């Protein structure tokens, strides 16, 4: 007779951790199909809240603005963060390198309230001195998000740049490549996974930000986290559950496609020739 082994401590902790992370999401998805507006009452299966979601112009406008700000912020953060990472990793004898590195990583440990308040004061002073920005809105949120997202990108890219074999770049320049061409032909393809990771991280941080956007936004610019937070304070709306379910579904599909593509690439690389 085969005796079943009791699950070990590691497996038990793994199961508990997975339940702690994903059980609330499952509950949210289930209640997005609840016919009742009350979260504590199950009144039957219904998809009417998805229809109400797509009829809510304020919510859809906030989603569109958040996606645009996140895209612009992530793209600019990758450019600035990559430049900073390149300077830190390649010019180790530069004067002020330690100061520059500290200033880049400061947003990582700075409370968001302090960052948002300092940026708000900056924009107010700029409006008084040079007349810009006239109104705080999408541009100010974009600048603010780029500011703290660049720090995360710089950390990710610098970690990858430190692993790049400098002899390959030196060989390319010995063969006649200019430093700029060497960067785009040799270095850039090597650090491309880090750039993609940094862009996705910056996009997620920008899309999820509430505190900093609340400081630097104006009456005409409302992001998705701001709308969700204001509506949750008055009670959890089933439309928010429906929106969260759609976001979870989209992220899950993207994650599965990325996993499948990486798995195929790994199999192709290990396949004997």
Automatic annotation (TrEMBL):
It is found in: Cell membrane. The chain crosses the membrane at residues 12-33, 69-88, 108-127, 139-161, 182-202, 240-261. Belongs to the binding-protein-dependent transport system permease family. CysTW subfamily. SUPFAM superfamilies: MetI-like. Pfam families: BPD_transp_1. It is a multi-pass membrane protein. The keyword ATP-binding does not apply. GO terms for biological process: transmembrane transport. GO terms for cellular component: plasma membrane. Keywords: Cell membrane, Membrane, Transmembrane, Transmembrane helix, Transport. It comes from the Bacteria. CDD domains: TM_PBP2 (cd06261). Residues 63-258 form the ABC transmembrane type-1 domain. It comes from Marinobacter halophilus. This is Putrescine ABC transporter permease PotI. The keyword rRNA-binding does not apply. Its main location: membrane. PROSITE patterns: ABC_TM1.
């Amino acid at each position: 007779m085969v005796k079943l082994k009791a699950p070990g401590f590691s497996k038990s902790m793994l199961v508990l951790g997975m339940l702690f992370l994903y059980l609330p999401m499952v509950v949210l998805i289930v209640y997005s199909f609840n016919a009742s507006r009350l979260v504590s009452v199950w009144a039957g299966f219904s998809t009417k809240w998805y229809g109400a979601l797509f009829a809510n112009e304020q919510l859809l406008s906030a989603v569109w603005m958040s996606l645009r700000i996140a895209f612009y912020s992530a793209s600019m953060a990758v450019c600035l963060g990559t430049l900073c990472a390149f300077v830190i990793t390649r010019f180790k004898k530069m004067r002020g390198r330690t100061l520059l590195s500290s200033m880049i990583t400061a947003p990582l440990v700075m409370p968001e309230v302090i960052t948002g308040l300092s940026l708000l004061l900056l924009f107010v002073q700029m409006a008084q001195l040079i007349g810009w920005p006239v109104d705080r809105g999408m541009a100010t949120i974009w600048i603010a998000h780029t500011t703290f997202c660049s720090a995360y990108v710089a950390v990710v890219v610098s970690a990858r740049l430190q692993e790049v074999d400098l002899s390959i770049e030196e060989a390319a320049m010995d063969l006649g490549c200019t430093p700029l061409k060497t960067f785009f032909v040799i270095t850039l393809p090597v650090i491309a996974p880090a750039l993609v990771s940094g862009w996705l991280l910056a996009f997620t941080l920008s899309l999820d930000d509430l505190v900093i956007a609340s400081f630097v936004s104006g009456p005409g610019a409302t992001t998705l986290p701001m709308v969700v937070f204001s509506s949750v304070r008055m009670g959890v709306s089933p439309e928010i559950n429906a929106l969260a379910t759609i976001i979870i579904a989209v992220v899950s599909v993207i994650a599965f496609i990325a996993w499948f593509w990486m798995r195929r690439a790994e199999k192709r690389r290990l396949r004997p020739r």
